[in-house]
Amino acid sequence: MIVIGAGPTGENVADRAVRGGLTAAIVESELVGGECSYWACMPSKALLRPVAAVREASHVQGVEGARLVPADVLKRRDSFTHNWKDDSQADWVKNAHIDLFRGHGRLAGERRVSVGETELTARHAVVVATGTRAIVPPVLAGVNPWTSREATSALAVPGRLAIVGGGVVACEMAAAWQALGARVTLLARGGLLERLPGFAGDLVADGLREAGVDVRLRASVTAAERGGFAGGADGGFLEGDAVTLTLDDGTVLEADAVLAATGRAPHTDDIGLRAAGLEPGSWLDVDDTMRVRNVSGGWLYAAGDVNHLALLTHMGKYQGRIAGDAIAARARGAEPAVTDRSSRTCVPQVVFTVPEVAAVGRTPAEAERDGIRTRVVEYDIGNVAGAALFADGYAGKAQMVVDEDRKTLVGVTLAGPGTGEMIHAATIAVASEATLETLWHAVPSYPTISEVWLRLLETYGM
Predict the structure, then answer these.
(1) CATH numbers and ranges of domains, the chain
(2) Res. 165: pLDDT tops 50
(3) DSSP 8-state symbol, 422
(4) Rounded to an integer, what distance in angstroms lies between the CA atom of residue 233 and that of residue 85?
(5) Following DSSP, what letter does each residue of 145-162 receive, concatenated?
(6) 266 upstream amide cis, omega within 30 of 0
(7) How far apart are CA 295 and CA 129, in angstroms?
(8) How many CA atoms within 13 Å lie on the side-chain side of 368?
(9) Is the pTM of this model over 0.85?
(10) How many Å apart are CA 99 and CA 14, to the nearest integer?
């Protein structure tokens, strides 16, 4: 089999197929390890963890003197990206008995992939695992803004940073760069984190404002001008090189750097999709084994962000395992024993803001859309003894969405310090369709923040 894209998803596809008895080749045009390793998950969380640690320390009476040292934070981040070198990841590919081809991979026909002058042919399948790229809105295109890549890899702190967007990247980078010394203005066309229940975005907005971020909701950029851009590769910012942003209310804002955090598009515009009868630049529609629909012969698969099911690294890795196992099974003449059970209904995610937001499954609106008769239960996490011990003045909320017909959970959202490490319990509950009766007998330890599970069930009426 052949995989186009050596990010975490592609690595997992190839590894599982090899474990299943196949040989595999993986094609990568940039760094082995992909977006997550060098420009997304790892560097962004390396920037954000010190921010959370200092905040947690400052909210416990008796602790004094906790502070960030920006140069050391950036140095620590660089260690997690291996200074943007992929030697160790390439070694892993080799040790996993996967052949690595460096270059731009394009579909060249059924089961065929070209890499420069080389053409590879797969006996069984080709997998697209090329992920996504940042969308830059037309109004910002002329000022050469940061995307998520520059925001996680910049080598210097801008004096003034304007962030356009209200999603995860926007909120996380606002928290990180404000703490590192930038004066951040966050411009969201609507609210923050609008795909999650409203209280999550409200708590994050409060946390950002408390940290000093100028949060402006329902604000749109109508014009942008700049003389040039000195950020990016060398991380520098030239005096007099400011961006001038005009907002829809007539307000004029100046910034040394602008981050466009307004969404993602599939990396499929130049990978030869027409050879499979598909439209270049499109998301790839897949079944529960990650096989792309409507491709004659069933030889093409797509896993990870590129199929638009769940744009999260851990879900891409999960889908990679599903796809690799499915390809290996079909190569043996069998149907896959395991298919995707989570990408459409049980997706966990963590937003590493201050406070953190963690969620899994359906929101109340999504459950209603799916025709589920629900009851929504909420509880103030700050009322739990473990939360009061964790931080003075702990502010947070928990919400569970109950399927009233089956008495199971279909969604959980937690917002508050430390909640990111709590979401897997909720993921197990939703994925296993555990009943409320079963959860009632899963006794949380005291005094931990996880006691909120008991309080939610008591609020429900157990």
Answers:
(1) 2-33+86-133+265-331 (3.50.50.60), 138-262 (3.50.50.60), 355-460 (3.30.390.30)
(2) yes
(3) G
(4) 15
(5) -B-HHHHHH-SS--SEEE
(6) no
(7) 17
(8) 5
(9) yes
(10) 10
